[in-house]
Write a structure and sequence with these properties.
The protein is mostly helical. Helix content is 51%, strand content 5%. The protein contains eight helices and two strands. It is elongated, with a radius of gyration of 18 Å. Keywords: DNA-binding.
Length: 148
């Protein structure tokens, strides 16, 4: 199983926001995209989704920027990944054309159990857990300005 690029970007952006010091200016989407090495257009879509999920607060205008919400910092990583990825089947048994084995196949159930085990492993983790040393100091060392 591989996470979508959007989920990967979302998790990296949330991790970067998790280490923002309250004394520094809130980073913009453009600054976070540059720091994480992702295209601005992708980052903007992901930030919009994270805002919709209540993980990120986006303030516009002078003094605006992005901030991780308390729910984003302390909420379950497993829940967040479920929200971002969805909980659909790992394989496309019902795709067109549907798999001829779908009525009697044990693979679909086995993969569903494996997927749930993956999410269950992430459930107790939070962004706070992910940004401890050695990750946090690396995140803090990333350039905060595009091209910086």
């Amino acid at each position: 199983m591989r996470l979508t690029k959007s989920t990967d970007i979302a998790l990296r952006i949330a991790m970067r926001l998790a280490v923002v010091d309250e004394t520094e200016a809130a980073p913009t989407t453009r600054e976070v995209a540059a720091a994480m090495g992702v295209p601005y257009t992708h980052a903007a879509k992901v930030v919009s989704r994270l805002t919709h999920l209540g993980v990120v607060e986006a303030r516009r205008g002078r003094g605006g920027g992005l901030a991780l919400t308390t729910a984003g910092l302390t909420g379950s990583l497993g829940r967040l990944v479920r929200e971002l990825e969805g909980t659909g089947d790992v394989v496309g048994c019902e795709d067109d054309p549907p798999c001829p084995l779908r009525a009697a196949c044990r693979l679909r159930g086995a993969l569903r159990e494996a997927q749930e085990a993956f999410f269950a492993h992430l459930d107790p983790l939070t962004m706070q857990d992910l940004v401890g040393s050695p990750t946090g100091p690396v995140l803090l060392g990333l350039p905060t300005r595009p091209g910086g």
